[in-house]
Amino acid sequence: MNFNELVEQCEVSLFHIVDVKTNYTIAKALKLFFQFIDATIEFCFIYSLQSVKCQSVLIKLSLIMDIVSAASKIIDQNSAKGVDDPFYILNIENVKHKYEIWKEKIPRVVPYYAVKCNDDERVLRLLRNLGAGFDCASKKEFNQMLDLGVDPERIIYAQTAKQVSHLKMAVDKGIQKMTFDCPEELQKIKKLHPNAKVVLRIRFDAKSSFVNLGPKFGCNPVTEAPNLIQLCKDMQMNLIGISFHVGTATTDYKVFGNALDAVRELFNFAETLDMKLNFVDIGGGFMGGNTELFDNIATTINSALDRNFPSEDIEIISEPGRYFVDTAFSIAAQIVLKKKSEDGQIYYFINESTYLSFCYYTDKDKLNYSVIKKSNLENHSEKKLSTIWGCTCSSLDKIYSDIEFPELDVDDWIIFHNMGAYSRTISSDFNGFSNRSSYILERNEKSSKKSFTVKIIHMKIDEKFI
Fold this sequence. Notes:
By secondary structure, the chain is α/β, with parallel strands linked by helices. The protein is built from twelve helices and 19 strands.
C-alpha cells in the first residue's frame, strides 16, 4: 500500500452514519475511525515513514473530526434560532503552528503577513503578538494594524502604484518602508515622502505558479534595476534594499535561489556607487498545506541566504499570506436546492458563491470537504457526477463542475476545508448575499477523550492536504 492508497482508505473508512441519538452507531463510527488510526500507525512503521509525516496525518484527521463536530453543533444552534446562513470556522491554533514552523524552518526571515489575504482580527492579533510584521497596501490596512497597536516600523507599504492620499497617510503615520519599481513612482515618493526607506521591487517570476504576477509588478533585474539604483543615488533617496515576488503558490522552489542570486548582484552594483543596502524582501505566495514543498523552499532559501547574505546585519523579510491562513479556515454551506440536469448530472445549489468565498476556489482537483447530512441516511455511499452552483442569480456562479460527489439532499451541509486565503477579503455582497459569520474552533485540552457530535461524515482529502 502506498500513501495515495492510504488516503483512499481514509476516504472510505470515514464515510459512516453517526446518529447522535444512538450510542451504538457513534461507538461503531469511532471504532472504525480509530481502526484507521491504528492502520495508519502500522503503515508508517512498516514503511519507515518519517515520524513527522505520520504524526501530521494523525493530527490532520483528528482536526477535521473536530471541525466537523463543531460545525454540526453550530448548525444545530443556528437552526434553533431560524438561522441557515453559511459560516466560517477558524482554527486559530493552526495559524500559531504555522508561525512556529516558519521560525523553525526559515529563522532568518521575518514574516510580514499580507493583510489582504485574510484580515480576520483574531489572526492579526495573534500574529502581532507572535512578532510578525505586516504587508499593507492601503489606508484601511494601515488603520487596521495601527489600531491594533502595531509599530509603524513593522509595516511595509508593499504597493508599487500608490494613491496620493494613501501615501500621505503613510507619511502622517510614520510608515517609512515602501516599494517602487519605476522612475515615476520614485518621483512621487520623493515629492510626498522624501525621507522614506524605499525598496526596489524586481520581477522574477517562477516557471509554474497559481497566479503569475507577470509585467504588472517589478522591474527587469538586469536592464532596469541598475538604472533605478543609480536614480535613487542621484535623487538622494534612501534605498535600503531589494524585493521580489516569484508568484502565488509556486511549486518551482529553485526560483528563490535564483532570485536571491540576482538580488546579490544588485547589492554588489549598489556598492560600486557607495550605496550600502541592508534589506531583502523575498515576497510571498507560499502554500500552507504542502509540508514537503515548504521544506524544499525553506532549504533553498536558507542555502541562498548563507551563500549571498551571510552577514547578520542584513534584514530579511517575507510577505506570506496564504501560508498562515489557507488551512486555518473552513466554510460550512447548506444545500438549498437539488435537481437533475438533462444529461443526468445532479445539480446542487448552496448558500455560498463565487461572488462570496469561492472566487479563487473553483479548482475541483483542490476540493477538500466533509459532509453533514440532516436526513435520508440511506444510499449515501455512491458518488455521482455533480455540479455545485452558487446562490446568486448570475449564470457564471458555478463553483465546481463535473465532480464525483456523494449524493446529498436539501438541508445537508458541506464543510469546505482550506478556505482561508482570499475568501473573506474578496467576498462581495452581490445580489444581497453575504457570509460574515465566523466561529473559532475551541478544543478541550483538559479532556483526554474527544467527543464528536456528527450525523454523517464524508471526507475527501488529498496527499497535499495532509
